[in-house]
Design brief:
360 residues, alpha+beta, six-stranded mixed sheet, 18% helix
Length: 360
């Protein structure tokens, strides 16, 4: 009997997979919420608003040869804001840098980490922008969920530890933004459509309908705003598509891919199938938009004429360590990188912003 001893790919010590230097990301790191906001330079740390019209009686007619009416004036108020700093760091040892250019390493590990951490930095800002209204900004930048909130519509009568928890905010102060006490300044309310029509506490989600979208547009138009872009999640975008598809009529098809500040929407057939716009306003999806418990993502209607990211210092990359000839700066034989962005979201007209909540 002969004894075969073939050399196979599984034979110990004879085969080693080579993985190569290309890294294929398995993560969705889009940051559309941040991208759709216009960027303006930070030239001051506050702004003034008119919060009430002059108290003149309707009509204002003056009788013949009558004395002049009493003088009046609008109400002014100051709003203060400070820039927020967002920072992300990473480091590599000297040995790791050396070995990754040898054998089956990543090659230029610094370039790989710089690219991935740059994406992470932008995505993290995107996640700040989509935080829930009951998460005060603190050191983070303000979220669009807070910008588009309303103390009037989202009335808070208790805290989340009560026997009947308040769904929209833990306490009344959660709705405050910048230097504004929203419960005492109704002019700072954005327009809110609660799909379940219940104010204060959530009594369950309601099925999204086109009436909810139309109501939001009407409310913002009455306040004097004009939505320029809508932001929502991919699930809600699909639901809007289904609503419009059922009403589609035979018409010439047109492929549209709306762009806004360099962000591409979902390609599709205008006003049917995959929805790109509604009322002529582009719908931009983001994976980070808040979804209701057992529901779908909220919808933010934004008038970006009055909503933008005020840039104190643009995103910059810093690096120091052994490779740049300064190991003492990081106090070790390695290399450290840093991404830093400084700024804040500004809203100069709350009436132009709105949100649709409690959707299923």
């Amino acid at each position: 009997m002969k004894a075969d001893a073939p050399l196979l790919s599984t034979t110990a010590g004879t085969y080693q997979a080579i993985y190569g230097r290309k890294v294929w990301s398995q993560l969705n790191q889009e940051f559309n919420a941040f991208s759709i906001l216009p960027k303006k330079p930070w030239d001051r740390s506050g702004w003034r608003v008119v919060t009430a019209k002059p108290s003149t009686a309707v009509g204002g007619g003056v009788a013949e040869n009558a004395t002049l009416p009493e003088t009046t004036k609008p109400t002014f108020q100051n709003i203060a804001a400070k820039p927020k700093t967002i920072a992300h760091t990473f480091d590599m040892s000297e040995v790791a840098i050396f070995l990754n250019d040898k054998d089956d390493g990543l090659g230029d590990i610094r370039s790989v980490l710089k690219e991935e951490m740059g994406k992470h930095h932008a995505e993290h800002i995107n996640q700040m922008l989509t935080q829930d209204v009951d998460t005060p900004a603190g050191n983070d930048i303000e979220s669009l969920d807070r910008v588009t909130a309303s103390a009037t519509e989202m009335d808070v009568s208790g805290d989340s530890t009560a026997s009947t928890p308040v769904a929209h905010a833990g306490v009344a102060t959660d709705l405050d933004i910048y230097s504004i006490d929203r419960s005492a300044n109704t002019w700072s309310d954005a327009e809110v459509v609660l799909a379940n029509t219940a104010s204060g506490t959530r009594s369950g989600n309601a099925v999204l309908s086109l009436d909810h979208l139309d109501e939001m547009f009407q409310k913002i138009w009455i306040r004097g705003g004009n939505p320029k872009v809508m932001l929502t999640g991919y699930d809600t975008l699909m639901r809007i598509q289904q609503l419009l598809q059922s009403q589609q009529r035979f018409m010439e098809e047109k492929r549209v891919v709306p762009t806004y500040n360099g962000v591409k929407g979902v390609p599709g057939v205008e006003a049917g199938f995959i929805v790109a716009t509604y009322n002529g306003v582009p719908i931009i999806p983001s994976k980070d938009v808040q979804a209701e418990p057992s529901g779908i993502s909220r919808i933010y209607c934004l008038d970006t004429d009055y909503l933008y990211y005020s840039t104190a210092k643009p995103t910059q990359y810093f690096e120091s360590g052994i490779e740049t000839g300064d190991p003492f700066a990081v106090n070790r034989l390695g290399q450290e990188g840093l991404y830093r962005t400084m700024g804040e979201v500004w809203t100069t007209f709350f009436g132009g912003q709105g949100s649709i909540r409690d959707l299923s």
